[in-house]
Amino acid sequence: MDLDRGKIIISGGKPLKGAIPVSGMKNAAVAIIFSTILTEDKCIIENLPNISDVKVSLDILSSVGVKVRQLGPNTVEIDSSVVNPGIAPYELVNKMRASYYLIGAELGRFGRAYVGLPGGCDFGIRPIDQHIKGFEALGCDVKVEGGYIEAAAQNGILRGSSVYMDVVTVGGTINVMLAAVRAEGYTEIENAAHEPHIVDTANFLNACGADIRGAGTDTIKIRGVKKLHGVTYTIIPDMIEAGTYMILAAATGGQLTVTNMIPKHVESITAKLEEMGVSIEEDGDSVTVSRRAPFLNHVNVKTLPYPGFPTDMNPQMCVLLSLARGTSHLTESVWESRFRYVEELKRMGARITVNGKTAEVEGTPSLRGARVRAVDLRAGIAMVIAGLAARGVTEIDEIHHIFRGYEDLISKLKAVGADIKVIVPKATEYEDY
Ligand code: EPZ
What's the CA-to-centroid distance between 360 and ligand 1, angstroms? Predict the structure, then answer.
């Protein structure tokens, strides 16, 4: 389906009810896919979400000689016995941010890397200075020019070292870990990010024979090993997808049981929703979410690195705050600017004023359907939530952003009563037009 020209059409205002399953975590999947380059053996990765960022990651691996075999809808075999570093096509690499893991993986395996600079959602500047600081600490010379990053270890061998991350960075933490796992000697990454996908990546690498301790804490300790062996590994559930569906339940005033998820990973989201008057019942690997009362209370939210309230839940939470009674404040502290979606939400009747890093949200009893666009991945899913909660019909353009991170979105939503469909204009329409 040509999603670049597709639209999502929603007839909203109905409370959604039923069970909605969570798929494998996008941000763990992309990191682990690139991590497979660090072993010459075959790996089997299970619970991979069938989303475009995973497909692009696998295409990048194939472009450098890795053999990828689909064993099932969510299972692939990755054979990295042969890898030709430095030849990944720019237009593929430029499609998403996570392609920068190719740098750490090529360095970790070959002691050298040559990769186009990454693309991804536009939140203002998205530097990689901390990645570079880590690579240089491991004994690499790093050059960034002409849209490419080139890194090479002096005499081809990376040497363990200590590196303090000046900024808490998920990508920087993972990338330095990838470069260090087969380095000579001992590495410490201090002021590391704690996200569950960092822990999942470290668990995958340790299952392959790496020696990584402390993932998920401030300091990650890595003792370099010569080689890594293959493994069969299952990706953890996506905490942002789970949080998205929890907010969807509260926004539509229905009741959703979000299944195949890890409640601990969404504790900060649960806490905020309960503050708003939402009931969250945990039961093993699922939570059941519904409003306690007809109204939602306003709250103040500040996004923070894990275990704080996730920045990737900013747009979704803003929709819910738009439906709460009273005025809320949403502060974005991770990204330089992540409020481009606000103009779209205001077309649906939301009352939001952005002052620098804080959005002031004055709640309104309901939103109204409108024609809007997805400005990035999480902004796009926020438009879906808004459309499902709003009265009337909502039409969303630029929906390719959304399908980067939400597997089987339309079927999962239809199964809980959503009136939603994707239409792709026929070529003839454009020809007539
Ligand atoms: C990852 O991006 C996620 N992407 C993002 O999710 C997420 O928003 C982000 O982590 C924060 O949780 C993937 O995992 C593929 P960072 P990443 O490096 O690694 C600054 C989604 O919707 N920084 O943790 O790029 C940076 O500018 C996406 O799934 C530096 O200053 O984020 C930002 O302000 C969107 N120098 C902050 O750190 C660096 O070298 C956090 O960035 C690196 C980062």
Answer: 24
Catalytic residue among 43, 121, 140, 318: 121
Give CA–CA dist 236/23, Å, rounded. Answer: 8
Which of 334, 378, 406 to mutate for ligand 1's pocket (most ligand atoms within 8 Å of CB)?
A: 334
Q: Which atom of ligand 1 is nearest to the CA of 334?
A: 34
Q: What is the pTM of this model?
A: 0.96
* Contact predicate 237/261, CB 8 Å: yes
Ligand 1 atom at shortest distance from the alpha carbon of 129: 40
Residue to substitute in 23, 25, 26, 27 for testing ligand 1 pocket (most ligand atoms within 8 angstroms of CB): 27
Per-residue pLDDT of the chain (433 residues; tens, 9 = 90+): 666 779 999 999 999 999 999 999 999 999 999 999 999 999 999 999 999 999 999 999 999 999 999 999 999 999 999 999 999 999 999 888 899 999 999 999 999 999 998 876 676 667 899 999 999 999 999 999 988 999 999 989 999 999 999 999 999 999 999 999 999 999 999 999 999 999 999 999 999 999 999 999 999 999 999 999 999 999 999 999 999 999 999 999 999 999 999 999 999 999 999 999 999 999 999 999 999 999 999 999 999 999 999 999 999 999 999 999 999 999 999 998 899 999 999 999 999 999 999 999 999 999 999 999 999 999 999 999 999 999 999 999 999 999 999 999 999 999 999 999 999 877 655 434 3
The one-letter amino acid code at 241 reads: E
Domain boundaries, the chain: 7-22+237-432, 26-232
Residue carrying structure tokens 């890595």: 222
**7-22+237-432 matches 26-232 in fold:** yes
Looking at domain 26-232, its CATH class is alpha beta
CB 370, CB 380: distance < 8 Å: no
Please provide the CATH number assigned to the domain covering 7-22+237-432.
Answer: 3.65.10.10
Separation of alpha carbons 24 and 3, rounded Å: 22
Contact 37, 9 (CB under 8 A): no
Residue 335 Cα to ligand 1 middle (Å): 8
**Whose CA is closest to atom 5 on ligand 1?**
312
Dihedral pair phi/psi, residue 396, rounded to 5°? -110, 125
Closest ligand 1 atom to the C-alpha of 193?
24
d(CA 86, CA 4): 29
Based on the residue annotation, tell me whether 140 is a catalytic residue of this protein: no
